[in-house]
Amino acid sequence: MEKERLRKAKENWDVLNRIINYISLIVILIIVVYSLSMLITQYLSSGAITVGQWLVELEWPLPYFAKPISYLSVALVVFWFSYLELKKDYYLQLDPIKRRICFLLALIFAFVSLYETFYNFMVWNALITSDAIRGFIIIDAQNLPYPNPKIPWNLPFATKLFSSIAAMSLYSLYFFHKHEKKRAVD
After folding, report:
1. Cα–Cα dist 160/35, whole Å
2. 54-65 burial by CB neighbour count: b if 16+ within 10 A, else e?
3. Cβ-contact 154, 127 below 8 angstroms
4. For the segment 133-177, what is each residue's pLDDT rounded down to a tens digit?
């Protein structure tokens, strides 16, 4: 009786994760298609692009509500959470070396994305402070001409994107560690 209840609860959890996974994937695809279409439009009209600018300038569905980069960030994290939950059994069946490689890759991604997030926040803060000294503040239009000066990155876009990657990597570390401990106990 108890096993049947647990099996049914797992099935319901899997169905919920699958629905969440598909919805977040659809949101991600819509935003990526929108972003690529805006990139092409901007490049054809001006010959230059700023990576992520379109996802920060638009506010949807109401002014001052939220920006596509915010929706993209949340959708990425939710997608990754639900994906790992759906692939839990596959992960547990991997041999120990492959599981350790997954853990190592998650650690590398966490380090790099946290570094980039902190770096972007420091640069963004410096640019906002510089603007404030000159008497105006434009938070969302801060661009960073790095790594390629010809193709700058919008700082709010880069910061939210790397923050999402950091959250995904940190959750992956937690997920892998939790299941390694569970395997050790079993």
Report:
1. 15
2. bbbbeeeeeeee
3. no
4. 998 888 888 888 877 888 899 999 999 999 999 999 999 999 999
